Amino acid sequence: MALLVVGGMVALAFVLSRLFGGDGRTAALVWLGGCSLALALPLLAAALAARTFRRVAAPLADVVVTAEAVAEGDLSARVQAVGPGEFGRLARTFNHMVEELERAEQQRRNLTADVAHELRTPLHIIQGNLEGILDGVYEPTAGHLQATLEEMKLLARLVEDLRVLSLAEAGQLPMVREPVDVAELVADVATSFSGQAEAAGVALQVQVKGGAAALSVTGDVGRLDQVLGNLVANALRHTPAGGAVALHAQPTTRGVQIVVGDTGSGVSAEDLPYIFDRFWRGDRSRSHAAGAGSGLGLAIARQLIQAHGGTITAASQPGLGTTLTIDLPA
User: Fold this and answer.
1) Domain boundaries, position 218
2) Which of 93, 106, 173, 327 lies 20 to 30 angstroms, CA to CA, from 64?
3) Tens-place pLDDT, residues 204-230
């Protein structure tokens, strides 16, 4: 092959020197130039190929290796060759995707552990009561049977809350959308909790601004009632005797705003970002005692409000109370 290239260059040099009237020296220069060019072009091509490999093949190989590690279950794997350009963007996007997968997996594990923990307490109480009755340790009195029944109700409510939350997060919760009079909704919730507030020595304050037309939204009245019921129940649970729970509604430029505030114990700044998480409780030591809820009420409230196209936010100061604000589109 080399002999053919050299021979071809000699013939080309001879022809060019004859065409342009050159002598043997000219032919030699043309031949040397051609040979140099013939050698330089492959070297240049090899250099360009090596550079392209470093810029294209190596990053792609890194992505492939990392993808294989992720497929085998290693969610801590990350693409290391992160640089400028499209391949850098690909690497950053891939790393972000894996980070989201790792976060979702951690949330799944946390949820499994939380559900197991929440189910364990009522199940142990029910099992203990029934075994005690069967073994003759307890008499099957109305008190023991009532305690067992209460734990069964708590267990059923926890399972139902988990079902509602999972359907809402998946966007599969059935919703019956119709015009909702927010003023009437607020009045119904206040009436439902007036007796509980009076028994607890807490003032339930209701304030509604605007007429029926201004306070109308389209939504599922049952689900909105569930949300407000959860919020008011939480407010009453954390407000001591002599305190107050406020339930306000007013029109906004976008729709309707509903505010549920209390003068209770409040939430610390460290805990405030997590109050809408599953199984979050301000006082973790209470668990199911003292009327504590399942820890799913605020998580369900957020999902239901988002399903209505709205938002729910929280503001709180320890010792001064908590305010939850719902904004619903008209």
Assistant:
1) 178-329
2) 106
3) 999 999 877 788 999 999 999 999 998
